[in-house]
Specification:
By secondary structure, this protein is an all-alpha fold. It is about 70% helix and about 0% strand. The longest helix is centred in the middle third of the chain and has 23 residues.
Length: about 140
């Protein structure tokens, strides 16, 4: 194994197993994306593909959150009159992108989203639809 590949592997391992000091919906779903793209993907993703996976997840979460905050320009879609929780929106956006990128993990990702939303009292929250709209726009982009 080349020194470059070993260095990249060490960096990814540190990112995967690092314990965040402050967890929120974005850092939580970044961790889930890391596990999905770098550990559970079958067959394993080539290096540059994982970068695209993360970019799509974060762009979808950004657009979902911006539907509420409206502080920054969206990447793919402006979602007017967003209702529900931005947490539910961001989580469902990340999950939908991951399912599109890793269809073999759909069952696990669906369970993960349900558990995540359920533990926060957000099952059935209208924000889920906002996240799905944001994810669809990023996937189609």
């Amino acid at each position: 194994m080349s020194l470059r590949k070993l260095s990249i592997l060490i960096i990814f391992e540190c990112l995967i197993w690092a314990v965040p000091t402050r967890a929120d919906v974005v850092t939580d779903w970044n961790d889930y994306a890391s596990q999905t793209a770098l550990v559970l993907a079958v067959p394993p993703r080539p290096g540059p593909s994982a970068i695209l996976d993360f970019a799509m997840v974060h762009a979808a979460m950004h657009d979902a959150i911006q539907a509420y905050d409206r502080r920054f320009e969206p990447y793919a879609v402006s979602i007017p009159n967003a209702t529900g929780s931005p947490i539910a929106a961001a989580a469902s956006a990340a999950q939908a992108v991951l399912v599109a990128r890793f269809p073999g993990q759909a069952g696990n990702l669906n369970t993960l989203l349900n558990n995540y939303l359920g533990s926060r009292g957000l099952l059935g929250n209208p924000g889920v639809s906002v996240g799905q709209i944001a994810a669809a726009a990023i996937i189609n982009l």
